[in-house]
Design goal:
The model has no long low-confidence stretch (mean pLDDT 94). 38% of the residues lie in helices and 21% in strands.
Length: 378
């Protein structure tokens, strides 16, 4: 598959470009794009062959020599995905895919009409430990509780040991235009709300918590449309420059189990950590998810079965694969062999609606009136 890569920052250099090279029997990168000319030249130089380089991402989308595009730019990706789909390209896009449910609806229809694959790169949904975890859940009886906890340090702490080249010399006018377009989409999603609430929705919920919803779906639990209670602390909805707050929420899942989600902003914490526990009437499973930017390893899965014995089912330290690698394999199979695409536009819409519901519940508790798509969810 001839693929173009748009956006060559951290996630491209540390994860996606090495994985595309590892899957060289499936992919060849023939066109790349970044707003930083120097960064683009550096990344292109380490790729096999001589990929074309374009500052303008539109040139990649329109390239008749491409079959697909991989979208790795900051922020949401629906606008670029639409350009690529209209040019007849299959699309795999990093999260967040969209800011509004309407975008997911529109692009899902467009991809279906043109018989194109549109996949959101939710790497946690493709973690190699997920199938074993889903099978183990069948053996623990009626699920009573699903608990998700994230301990999130600063971005700088997460990337301190990584070898990558930062972008320099990007066209600031183009960056500002993209940021303004996303701000307008935020108004479509939530209405005219205080800046801190807008940032919480677009930067924290869509930027990070959305991964937890995709992992829940992969385990067989549909993300909740309504949240019973949420918390954000410390949080000033009018302060757009503050650090992210910690978050907590509870919801009832289909089937009656309680979902308890905790996303903790702990800037001085030594490393990113994430765990998912599922407690049933006859046992429990526990997933220790991998670092977002770490090596190619899957989660560690342990289980306490009906016999009372605790055992390790899958230990990521024994593997070289990862969810990042598997999502590319699934994308290739979906395009070339009509394989399944479990994280398409419909999944993105459900996740977006769930996080709008989280924001609506928080706004309701704070006495803030929402408009837009979320206005009816409080």
């Amino acid at each position: 598959m001839r693929i173009g890569v748009i956006g060559l920052g951290l996630i491209a250099q540390v994860v996606h470009v090495p994985n595309l090279a590892r899957l060289g029997d499936r992919f060849v990168v023939t066109h790349v794009s970044d707003l930083s000319p120097s960064l683009m030249a550096t990344v292109a130089a380490v790729l096999p062959g001589t990929p074309r380089c374009s500052i303008d991402a539109t040139e990649v989308c329109a390239d008749p020599e491409l079959d697909a595009v991989l979208l790795l730019t900051p922020g949401a990706h629906a606008a670029l995905a639409e350009e690529a789909l209209l040019e007849g390209k299959h699309v795999i896009a990093e999260k967040p895919f969209c800011v509004t449910q309407a975008e997911a609806d529109r692009l899902g229809r467009l991809a279906a009409e043109r018989d194109l694959v549109l996949q959101v790169a939710y790497m946690k949904a493709y973690d190699p430990a997920i199938p074993a975890a889903r099978a183990a859940i069948e053996d623990i009886g009626d699920v009573q509780l699903v608990s998700v906890e994230v301990r999130h340090p600063t971005h700088e702490r997460q990337i301190a040991s990584l070898d990558f080249r930062p972008a320099r010399g990007a066209d600031k006018k183009t960056v500002r235009a993209a940021e303004a377009a996303e701000e307008r989409l935020g108004v479509e999603a939530l209405g005219d709300v205080p800046v801190g609430l807008d940032h919480l929705y677009r930067w924290v919920l869509l930027g990070s918590v959305i991964h937890e919803l995709s992992a829940l779906r992969a385990l067989g639990f549909e993300p909740p449309g309504r949240w019973e209670h949420v918390q954000a602390w410390p949080f000033d909805p009018g302060d757009g420059g503050a650090d992210p707050p910690s978050l907590a929420g509870t919801a009832q899942l289909d089937g009656g189990a309680l979902l308890r989600l905790q996303w903790l902003w702990v800037p001085e914490y030594p490393r990113y950590e994430e765990s998912i526990s599922v407690v049933g009437s006859r046992g429990a499973i526990h997933l220790e998810m991998p670092q977002p930017y770490g090596p190619n390893v899957p989660a560690r899965l342990t289980m306490r079965g009906p016999d009372g014995v605790g055992r390790v089912i899958t230990d990521g330290r024994q593997w070289r694969d990862s969810g990042f690698l598997e999502e590319l394999r699934v994308f290739h199979a979906a395009v070339t062999a009509d394989g399944p695409n479990p994280t398409g536009a419909a999944a993105a819409k459900v996740d977006t609606a769930s996080l709008q519901g989280f924001t609506a519940q928080l706004a309701h508790q704070l006495g803030i009136e929402l408009g837009g798509e979320a206005g009816s969810l409080a």
